[in-house]
Amino acid sequence: MGVGLRQQVKSAAISFATTGDNVIVAAVAGKLITVVSLLLVSTAPTNITVKDGAANLLSGAMPLAAGVPLVLPVDPTLDWYSTTAAANALILNQSGAVQISGTVWYVQN
Fold first, then answer.
1. Which residues span the domain enclosing 20?
2. Which CATH number is 50's domain given?
């Protein structure tokens, strides 16, 4: 990530236990959401799919094991992991109904 973007990085706490779509970062008119780092942990096995708004998939279903974190660290050789389209929310879709906790770090521009 460029040094200039570091001052723009925001974070959002992740905490949900519902099946289906869970908005992690709300949409803002005309703004993209660019994920630069992510930490997720589940209390029981489940699958998570990252989505760009309600219909666009950014990942396939990723299995999470209980207590085993999914970490996408800040990587100096990579600018970002994923970007939504302008005015779309960042959504995590869960196949189960278990507690998912973590943090997402992102830039909204």
1. 3-108
2. 2.60.120
